[in-house]
Specification:
Rossmann fold, 7-stranded mixed beta sheet, 20% strand, alpha/beta, globular, binds S-adenosylmethionine
């Protein structure tokens, strides 16, 4: 197998972010506020290059109908909403009012609140309540890792042909090779499950903590 390993130093990461739609003042403020308010949890936020990629992918597939599972303080939802047309819709799922109250403020500030509907509650139940026809253009999964197989199975049939599902943290800091806890094992099992799913074309990218992209056939 040909390998092209590239250790991403902090300096190189800064360079990479700066040369691909870097965070604007609103995204920057959201990162700073998340760190100040929730120092223990702030690392859950998607990386800036992932935010840029999510906006890019949303536009690439001409998404009008999108879903996000795992919203936290709103960085990924902000990125997806910004890629949608003015009459597009992003439905977000999270269990936390506390985290998502921050997200709501930043959606307002960015002028995208009217494109976003937030549903609070366990995502598995909320996803089951969505229309069952294949109407979704884009979905992003980034909630509790144990739920990934359920979220995937609820979302794949709802994706239109050519629709895109992005799944975060699929490398678990490299621990998918030697799982240490329940979440690592859940992701390793999820990766095998997604790989065997004939309803999608799949690619796993070494972006941040690993991002799988699935395209509905
Ligand atoms: C990794 S964070 C999401 C980060 C977010 N995508 C961002 O860019 O800031 C995971 C989120 O999933 C939420 N969550 C955990 N379990 C959940 C569940 N069963 N259903 C819905 N959301 C859940 C947490 O409250 C948390 O906000």
């Amino acid at each position: 197998m040909t390998m092209k390993p590239l250790p991403l130093t902090e300096e190189l990461h800064t360079y990479l972010v700066a040369h691909g739609s870097p965070p604007d003042e609103i995204a920057q403020a959201l990162t700073e506020e998340t760190i100040a308010l929730l120092p223990e949890d702030a690392r859950m936020q998607v990386a800036p290059e992932q935010a840029a990629l999510l906006t890019f992918l949303t536009r690439l597939v001409d998404a009008r109908q999108a879903v996000e599972v795992g919203t936290f303080t709103g960085m990924s939802s902000l990125a997806i909403a910004r890629g949608l047309p003015a009459d597009g819709k992003l439905t977000c799922f999270d269990i936390s009012d506390e985290f998502t109250s921050v997200a709501r403020r930043y959606w307002d500030r960015a002028g995208v609140s009217d494109r976003i509907e937030l549903r609070i509650g366990p995502a598995a139940e909320s996803l089951r309540a969505l229309p069952t026809e294949p109407y979704l253009d884009l979905a992003f999964i980034d909630a509790d890792k144990i739920g990934y197989p359920v979220y995937w199975d609820e979302l794949v049939p709802r994706m239109r042909p050519g629709g895109l599902i992005a799944v975060d943290n699929v490398l678990r800091g490299g621990r998918v090779l030697a799982p240490r806890d329940e979440s690592d094992r859940a992701i390793a099992a999820f990766n095998d499950m997604a790989r065997a799913d004939e309803r999608v074309d799949l690619v796993m990218l070494p972006v941040a903590d690993g991002l799988t992209l699935g395209r509905r056939r």
